[in-house]
């Protein structure tokens, strides 16, 4: 797209126009550049804070705003963009590498936490090139001296060190100083500084400066108090003098009555002055006492802030869940889930940070662990999502809409957009749980179907999913069948099958209630998101999904159950990334003949023999797994109409490994011996499980 008004204003440093066009924040040019990148490249530091929501975004080449600032030498922009420290472009270049290459020492000094990183692909220099090597090549001795303790002895992919770059540079000029510094280049390196330390040190310096200012104000107040005491002493002396004059006047009263009257008036004026002086002194004492108390409170608040910053620094040093949530780093998040529930100095959790930035996948992952927590203001993650205008995140966090902040306001009262307010205000009718499950509180609807509905709930210190299976309006035989199938899930125990915490029948409204783990999403939503982002599954990811679902089916079939409605929407994603088989609404216990004829399920995932209304066995689950594998490999279903399933040949799978393509083709076999062919394919998957 063409540059927006926001991008133009940011490039010019026009702060007023930037604020007026913040609605365009997050948009990119054709080359992927944002308004924040243009401000950073031109050194427009005043425009960076209003555009902070664009921090972490990349251009087509993987460039960040921090890299542009470092390349152009705008050191005053570095600290404002410290959220991008550690990010690399598509060649592996960091902001520090660009600062070193261009000789921007002030920038390099602020980016030392990136020391030790190297390029990943060739771009004028071989992979493995470090910032020290480029500083040596381009003859920047100050930066060489700065980086030497952290990168000495490192080698690129061609086994060259920084010393080699200095001795073999094609650049003009004298390299004497650089070569002297690298003459005795060692191999022992210091670890790079923590990226948060400079920011925290700056904050501490700011607080120290503010503290010194308050001390000066206190000293000034004390001086004012001393001046008041001096004035009071002078007034006392004046009163004493007036009393002496009054005494003399009384002695002379008999001689001169008029003089006596005059002196009486002067005495009265003196008394009034003394009273006013006393009142003024009393007022000054009260003001001084209040000022001292206010200063004590401010100093106590500063100490508390310093302690909070120290605690936050400790979290950051140890590698925190919160920064990973801010950056949308799902891999780090899954490794740090043991830190779920921790809060920063403002009381915000990782889920709240992700919701405020519209990190949908992070919200989906953290929702089961951190939903319904509140920060220092009483805000929930839903309120932060509403404040940021992130509709997808709002939809995922509706289980928090009954909570109120510190001012007694709900998320709906925070909403500005009318459409979002209607979503938040609308309260669905939630069923009543049996008394045995009264410890759980239903909070929102997750999904509905012909057999019942699934809700989010909170209880016993955790967020869960509650499925309510409706038994009403059915014959006794149907009710018994549904009741029996509702009891299947609590009897299963497998890492790739959704865990049922409790199951109870509710006689009051003829329902069966299942309390289950709350997962972070399903394969259908994940597949849609990948199509939208044009990020296809790798062979390894397809194999992983097939193996994990096959493990669940093997266990299910050994228990003599057939799922009969296997599809992406019924494959849930656990917190650690495992595929978990859920929704047993159509599951059926195999009879002795191991064959069935009931027509239930989702048409485009059903095997041919089911569409012919003939008998079928557990191999229909293998067919459905093959359809899902085909969809993950190609991005589309193998058959788009039910008639095609019976009549048309399977379209070939292209650009995939032969082993994977052959396996899926066997799963989707329509030969007369299709049951044996599918079982053979399933046995092949089971070998991979071992």
Account of the protein in words:
The chain is of the alpha+beta class and 690 residues long. The protein folds into five domains: 5-182, Ankyrin repeat-containing domain (Serine Threonine Protein Phosphatase 5, Tetratricopeptide repeat); 197-317; 321-425, Serine Threonine Protein Phosphatase 5, Tetratricopeptide repeat (Alpha Horseshoe), CATH 1.25.40.20; 435-517, Phosphorylase Kinase, domain 1; 523-689, Transferase(Phosphotransferase) domain 1 (Transferase(Phosphotransferase), domain 1), CATH 1.10.510.10. Helix content is 50%, strand content 7%. It has helices spanning 5-12, 15-20, 35-41, 65-72, 75-78, 95-101, 105-110, 131-137, 141-151, 162-167, 176-182, 197-251, 257-317, 321-327, 330-335, 350-357, 360-370, 381-388, 391-396, 411-414, 418-425, 476-486, 523-533, 539-558, 608-611, 619-634, 642-647, 658-667, 674-689; strands at 440-449, 452-459, 462-470, 500-506, 511-517, 561-562, 571-573, 579-581, 588-589. The strands form three sheets. It has a five-stranded antiparallel β-sheet. A hairpin with a 2-residue loop joins β2 (452-459) and β3. α14 (321-327) runs parallel beside α16 (350-357) and α24 packs across α29. Residues 586-601 have low confidence and may be disordered. Residues 207-272 are annotated as: Disordered. Residues 440-690 form the Protein kinase domain. Residues 233-248 have a biased composition (Low complexity).
